[in-house]
Structure formats: structure tokens, C-alpha cells
Amino acid sequence: MRANVNVVLVSLLVFLAISSCNGGQLSPVFYRKSCPQLGRIVRNITWSKVAANPTFAAKLLRLHYHDCFVQGCDASLLIDSTDGNTAEKDARPNRSIGGYEVIDEIKAKLEEECPDIVSCADIVALAARDAVSYQFGRSMWQVFGGRKDGRVSLATEAARDLPSGGANYTSLQDQFAGLGLNYIDLVALSGAHTIGVAHCVVFARRLNFTGKGDIDPSLDTAYAEFLKTQCPSRPNPDTTVELDENSSLSFDSNYYVGLRQNKGLLGSDAALLTDRRAAWVARRFQNFHVFMARFGKSMMKMGDIGIKTGDDGEIRKNCRVIN
Ligand code: HEM
Ligand SMILES: *[C@@H]1O[C@H](CO)[C@@H](O)[C@H](O)[C@H]1NC(C)=O
Ligand SMILES: *[C@@H]1O[C@H](CO)[C@@H](O)[C@H](O)[C@H]1NC(C)=O
Ligand SMILES: *[C@@H]1O[C@H](CO)[C@@H](O)[C@H](O)[C@H]1NC(C)=O
Ligand SMILES: *[C@@H]1O[C@H](CO)[C@@H](O)[C@H](O)[C@H]1NC(C)=O
Ligand SMILES: CC(=O)N[C@H]1CO[C@H](CO)[C@@H](O)[C@@H]1O
């Protein structure tokens, strides 16, 4: 009798854990019958792309984030602008987004193997997971399927919905909360900045804080001097700096180590230390296993934002064009 109660309790907890992750709309077995080779195809192409060019990991991860934060995870970010419509991808915060060609290649292969079955939004979620996972040789979190592709993509919404690199803690927390993400998700997902780069213009203000050539007091002084050598006052607009110094190709917890030394590159990174609870979480995430477990969970929550199902969306044939 006691054992039965335990079984029921455990099943209930597992059920709650799963359903709280997907809002009940996405499924871990969504394509099991309709496209069983999906996982293998996405992983194969993503891994070979990242193996050939490790910077794709950051690009594909960021692609999924930008997609989900604007209009929900519906691949609206992949739509190309047309004569009458400036799409999300051409909005200012999107300028340095990349990885579209990887998604195109995966989609083309899937249209050969299971035509009209797999949404671009699900491909983006899978590719982000696989891009990060390549270095570990196994999938680091689960991706559920069932997202439909959206039919709208507007530059104005990208500018409104994506937090800026200079955002303070209050506005970051508000923007995340509006999407169902709490402060732990905010700290965990900011850890994505353990890979990739940022352009000088994004953090230039921290090196000339009040317009008198002074640096942002929340920035480590030696690090600020280093940044000034990388980003002179009129930098080449293409110049970039590693978000996680000396470790921008390795998905690890070094971001949190640097953050606590006031070497978070973006104002939004540094802002995490201005809140007591967030700073405490960031400290815990210096442990890679603690960070990674939560990062996967938060990615699943992020992958659940604004899901479109049924007639709210479509399965695009070409990820760049609405059917
Ligand atoms: C907390 C709010 C966030 C802000 C304000 C923010 C802002 C930025 C900015 C300004 C850049 C540099 C872009 C450039 O100069 O090219 C960047 C890069 C990046 N962001 Fe974020 N981000 C945030 C959250 C996230 C999240 C949630 C993810 C993914 C889960 C993410 C993943 C990345 C990656 C991987 C890069 C490097 C891209 C590359 O190297 O191509 N960011 N972010
Ligand atoms: C993986 O991709 C490569 C080339 O991109 C191809 O040669 C190989 O057959 C693929 N393997 C599987 C198992 O799909
Ligand atoms: C944070 O930024 C928002 C938006 O820019 C601003 O309205 C607010 O006053 C700022 N809060 C603090 C505490 O600086
Ligand atoms: C700092 O900003 C001010 C005002 O925008 C500008 O006049 C000055 O040249 C800048 N200084 C440096 C070192 O970039
Ligand atoms: C990164 O490497 C440079 C050169 O080796 C070194 O001076 C710097 O301290 C390193 N930064 C960190 C955070 O380890
Ligand atoms: C994919 C991409 O980079 N799209 C656009 C982002 O913004 C720049 C500059 O505004 C455009 O040149 C890109 O085509």
C-alpha cells in the first residue's frame, strides 16, 4: 500500500515536472511516427557545421533566443523582408544574428525525407540544443516538438521585445517575467554569454560612461583598459570582443566566474550583480553542473514561449518565406 502511494506520488511529480515545462502543448514524441529520423538529421547537420566552424554554436543559440522573445518561438525571425514589410531579422538588435544557412540546409534535407511535417520553429529549437551539445557529444537538454511557424514578422516588434545590452536589472526582470521566466531563468539564460562575441558599439558606453572618457564603475579597471585597446573610440563597426574572455568557444561556467570579478562584458550582464538574489544565483552557477542542469530547464521554458498550434500557424516549406 505504502509503495503504491509512492508510485502515484512520483508519477504525479514527474507529470507535473513535464507539464510545467511544456504548458501541455508540446510533446517529447511529437515526430516519433511522422518523422522518426528528425533528431538524427538535425544533429548530424548541426554537429558537422559546428565542427567546421565553432562560432555557429553561439549563432544558433542566439537565433533561438531572439526567435522566442519576439512573437514566441515561431520562426518569425527567419522570414526575409519583402518590398512591403521590414522583417524582424532586419531590425536593429538582429543585425549580427547568423546561422540562417544552417537552418535552411536542415530544412531542405527534411523536406526530402519528411515533406511538410517539421516546422522551422522546431528546427531552430533543436539546432540550438545540438549546437551547444556538440562539445559534449550528447544532448544536454530535451527539446519537445509541436511548434507551428508564424505568419507575421515585424522589425518594430523585435526592437520592442528584445532587452538591450545596456538594460538594468529591473527592466531585464520585467521583460523576462512578461514571458513567464523568473529571475533564476534570467541568470541561467544570461549564461548563454559563455559563448560568442559582442560588437564594440554594444558596450562602448561602459568605456566612456558619462562622456568624459571615464569607465563604468561596475567594470573591472584592468579589464576596461583591455577593452579600450580592442575598441578604440572609433572602432571598426565589425570589431568584436569575446563575451567570456578567453573562453568564448567553450560552453562552461566561466561566464559566472568572470561576472563575479566585474568582467561581465555587457551592462545587462553586470546588472545581474545589482540584485541580491540574482547575485546569489550567479555565484551558485560558478559550479558547472549546477549551471548546466538549470540552463537546460530554462531553455525548455524559453522554448515554450508563445507556442502557436493548430490554425494559429503553419508548417513553412521554406523557412524564409511565409507559405
Ligand atoms: C538577458 C538579456 C540579454 C541581453 C540584453 C542580450 C544582449 C546581447 C548582446 C547585445 C549581444 C551582442 C550582439 C552583438 O554585438 O553582435 C549578445 C550576444 C549573444 N547572446 Fe545575448 N542577450 C541576452 C540574453 C541572451 C539569451 C537568453 C541567450 C540565449 C539563450 C543569449 C545568447 C547570446 C549569444 C550566444 C550571443 C553571442 C552571439 C554570437 O557570437 O554570434 N543572449 N547578447
Ligand atoms: C551525416 O551527414 C553527412 C554529410 O553531411 C553524410 O555524409 C552522412 O551520411 C550523414 N549521416 C547520417 C547518419 O545521416
Ligand atoms: C531601468 O531602466 C528603465 C528603462 O530604461 C528605466 O525606466 C528605469 O528608471 C531604470 N531603473 C533604474 C533603477 O535605474
Ligand atoms: C566620450 O564621449 C564624449 C561625448 O560623447 C566624446 O566627446 C568624447 O570624445 C568621448 N571620449 C572618448 C575617449 O571616446
Ligand atoms: C586572457 O588571456 C590573456 C592573455 O593570455 C590574459 O592576460 C588574461 O588575464 C586572460 N583573461 C582571463 C580572464 O583569464
Ligand atoms: C541576417 C542579417 O544580418 N540581416 C540584416 C541585419 O541588419 C543588417 C544591417 O541593418 C542587414 O545588412 C542584414 O541583411
- Tell me the overall shape: globular
* Major sheet: 2 strands, antiparallel
Mean pLDDT: 92
**Judging by the overall fold, what is the CATH architecture of the domain at 2-191 and 281-312?**
Orthogonal Bundle
> Which residues form runs of ≥5 with pLDDT under 50?
12-22
β-strand percent reads under 5%
Bound molecules: protoporphyrin IX containing FE, 2-acetamido-2-deoxy-beta-D-glucopyranose
Count of β-strands: 2
Tally of DSSP helical segments: 14
Cα(first) to Cα(last) distance is 56 Å
Q: What is the H/E string?
A: HHHHHHHHEHHEHHHH
Please bin the fraction of helical residues.
40-55%
Strand order of the largest sheet: 1-2
Category by helix and strand content: mainly alpha
Please state the CA-atom Rg, rounded to the nearest Å.
20 Å
Reported by name, the CATH topology of the domain at 2-191 and 281-312 is Peroxidase, domain 1
Text of the CATH class of the domain at 2-191 and 281-312: Mainly Alpha
Disulfide bonds: 35-114, 68-73, 120-319, 200-231
Binding site for Ca(2+) 1: 67, 70, 72, 74, 76, 88
Enzyme class: oxidoreductase
Pfam families: peroxidase
